Amino acid sequence: MLKNKVVIIKNIYDFDINATLLSGQCFRFKKNDDKSFTGVVKDNILNLKYDDSKHELIINGIDEKQYVEFYEEYFDLKKDYNKIRKELEEDEVMKKAIQFSPNIKILNQEFWETLCSFIISQNNNIPRIISIIETLCKNFGTNIKDDFYTFPSAEEIAQLNLEQINIIKSGFRGKYILDAAKKVVNKTVDYEKIEKMDLNDARHHLMQINGVGPKVADCTLLYGAKKFDAFPVDVWMKRAIAKLYPNGIPDVVTKHAGIAQLYIFNYSRLCKEIFE
DNA sequence: GACCAGGTATTGC
DNA sequence: GCAATACATGGT
Fold first, then answer.
1. pLDDT band at A273 (very low <50, low <70, confident <90, very high)
2. Per-residue model confidence (pLDDT) at position A1
């Protein structure tokens, strides 16, 4: 009898797994026919299901200890979003963006995976980003079981040459991925140093990598390095800001930059009426 | 076949 | 400094 690890989190009232896992901040969760999500984090195969009536989050694939030590923070379930939302709602635009997906959350993902994923994201679309990352894991990650693979470590990627990385058909991004892996392995880019830096220093630290500019740096810092004051601006955000904040971004948005960005990004990407 | 996609590096002024 | 352009690949 194979034991199936599971943890059930009770009294969860503000976690929208759909908005969170389909928001373009992560790329390895897939929705199943039963509305649950399956994805790989580290070497764990997770299955998440939210029970609306009981307000329970059921996570298959991990135990209580792993939840407390890692995944509670990974899914950002420690943070007081109520307080942040209340402050942001002073602004009318934010109020609408929050109403659209009030319970979306920032994922605190692993540093290297986030960096590598957002290098792949540049000048690319989300379905293709997902497919390239899947190919990357299949080719260079470690098989866990069935068709599930870990995200390959920086060490594993750093050993590859250009011809090998081109198997994943990431185009011109291949050389960027190799440069990032090498610089993470030799600690030119070091997460432990980034943890101690302010946002601006951390950005420039990351931008030592060829193929990492302000946008990839900010996404990496927000979703993979707990820099919640990062405010990634991509094509969607540019359009949204031009339309929603023609006279500039209010202070309250700057104060909660990271989370505000996720609300606005999600709102502008999914709510077409804004631009009509 | 042109144009776009969670951008960046390079070039030219 | 800032605008224009190339960059791989796949989908409309």
1. confident
2. 61
- pLDDT for A19: 97
Contact residues for A99 (Cβ-Cβ < 8 A; gap 6+): none
Active site residue A215: yes
Q: Using an 8 Å Cβ cutoff, are A270 and A239 in contact? A: no
* Distance C2 C1' – A26 CA (angstroms): 33
Which of A245, A103, A222 lies closest to A253, judged by CA? A245
Query: Does position A219 have pLDDT exceeding 90, yes or no?
Result: yes
* Among A194, A225, A195, CA closest to A204: A194
Alpha-carbon dihedral angle through residues A166, A168, A170, A174, given to the nearest 10 degrees:
-40
Q: 3-state secondary structure string, A169-188?
A: CCCCHHHHHHHHHHHHHCCC
> Would the Cβ of A169 be found within 7 angstroms of any atom in strand C?
yes
Contact A160, A185 (CB under 8 A): no
Query: Are the beta carbons of A179 and A211 closer than 8 angstroms?
Result: yes
Residues touching nucleic chain B (CB < 7 Å): A 23-25, 121-126, 128-129, 172, 207, 209-217, 219, 232-237, 261-262, 265
pTM more than 0.85: yes
CB A122 within 8 A of CB A216: yes
Q: Tokens 């929603």 map to which residue? A: A244
On chain C, which bases lie within 7 A of the protein's CB atoms? 7-11
Average pLDDT on A198-208 reads: 98
Q: How far apart are CA A251 and CA A247, in angstroms?
A: 12
Positive/negative CA dihedral, A263, A266, A269, A275: negative
